[in-house]
Amino acid sequence: MTENLFKPYALNNTINLNNRILMAPLTRCMADDDLVPTQAMADYYARRAEAGLIISEAVIIRPDGQGYPNTPGLFSQSQIEGWQRVTSAVHNNGGKIFAQLWHTGRVAHPYFYSNGDDNAAVMAPSAIAVEGSVPRMRELTYKTPKAVTIDEINTLIYDYAQAAENAIAAGFDGVEIHGANGYLIDQFLHHDSNRRTDEYGGNSENMSRFALQVVDAVIDRIGHDKTALRVSPGAYFNLEGDNRDRDVFDHLLPQLEKRNLAFLHIGIFDDSMEFDYLGGRVSSYVRANYNKTLVGVGSYSAETASSAIDTDKFDLVAIGRPFIANPDYVAKIRNNEPLVSYSDEMLTSLV
Ligand code: FNR
Ligand code: 8K6
Question: Domain residue spans in the chain?
Fold first, then answer.
């Protein structure tokens, strides 16, 4: 009973998806030491080309966006060329792929980009550190970031747009701006991490400004039909939620709707989580406030996703961990074959 997942879907006049199953963005930390995608990564993505759309693992837009080891970039010529190998391999297998554009903000660690300079800054809306340390590199505790200046904000916006242009040069079909999961853009959207008193903080309109400026700069560079965004109205990772966050997203979502994005994608690990300040699930909240293409995600099986699409909870589903465990996820669902279960040990190799 998952036939509806196999109905084609037109994102807009230029991008048609063969089915409604997206591969969720999944950081794998397998780029080489220059943050260039490898042949093994090209093979990994090519094996998953039957997805209606692959969203790449998060790709850093510039060196100080890095918060995890060996995450690929899109700011050097060799990175663009590495991604060309990936996008060609996916296209040769009949697939489509968007790049997810990422800056980790206060979750960045200078260990990755400082070249030994102890004063290398961590960029964030406000000088409030996130507690804890880098996953799998626990000796790297998070530093107190620098509250970015207006000039630095303008440069960041420019760098997102440049990375989007680089993504198109690398053969991607479009980009998903990573505005979710407690990273830089999301840090502007939540009161926990944004205490600014200038035009980027203090009220919903100001707190939405950076996200919208990045979206507009990317649209300007590559077009709205190739631009998507991921958001986490429910804070659950790298951030604490605040009841006032609701107003920020109440303001942001209708503004986004006017941009005619390729799609809006929710960032969450489990969509059965409920948030008091959103009145329930994130997907229900976003659906009620945003009337264009919505991608649901978060611990869905093909069956639960099919029924959510059937009852109009969202239009497309992104599948994460099951796609790590099953490169042929789409074929298995179509043929009603059993899936291999995901386990965290699978993260150590690229199958
Ligand atoms: C993720 N997720 C994630 N999200 C994102 O926006 N960018 C990323 O690079 C990553 N990386 C990542 C790595 C790993 C190992 C996991 C498990 C998850 C979140 C992911 O896209 C998705 O939202 C969740 O995995 C929930 O979907 P599933 O796995 O329940 O289908
Ligand atoms: C985006 C980079 C992420 C790198 C590794 C992610 C590994 C995720 C493992 C799954 C468990 C995540 C749980 C986090 C959410 C907490 C929910 C309350």
Answer: 3-348
Structure tokens at 36: 């260039």
Residue closest by Cα to atom 2 of ligand 2: 27
Pairing relationship of beta strands 280-281 and 274-275 according to DSSP bridges: antiparallel
Model pLDDT, residue 138: 87
Residues serving a catalytic function are 183
Q: Which protein residues touch ligand 2 with a CB less than 6 Å away?
A: 27, 58, 68, 135, 236-237, 269
Tokens (6 digits) for 341: 């279960």
239-249: average pLDDT:
97
ipTM score assigned to the predicted complex: 0.96
Q: Domain 3-348: give its CATH code.
A: 3.20.20.70
Q: Which residues pair with 297 in a beta bridge?
A: 318
Mean pLDDT of 205-221: 99
Locate the ligand 1 atom nearest the alpha carbon of residue 24 and give its number: 21
- Closest CA to ligand 1's atom 18: 26
pLDDT attached to residue 1: 80
Mean pLDDT, residues 281-297: 98
Q: What radius of gyration, in Å, describes the C-alpha atoms of the chain?
A: 19
Residue 76 contacts residue 34 (beta carbons within 8 Å): yes
The ligand 2 atom at the shortest distance from the C-alpha of residue 269 is 15
Give the chain's mean pLDDT.
Answer: 97
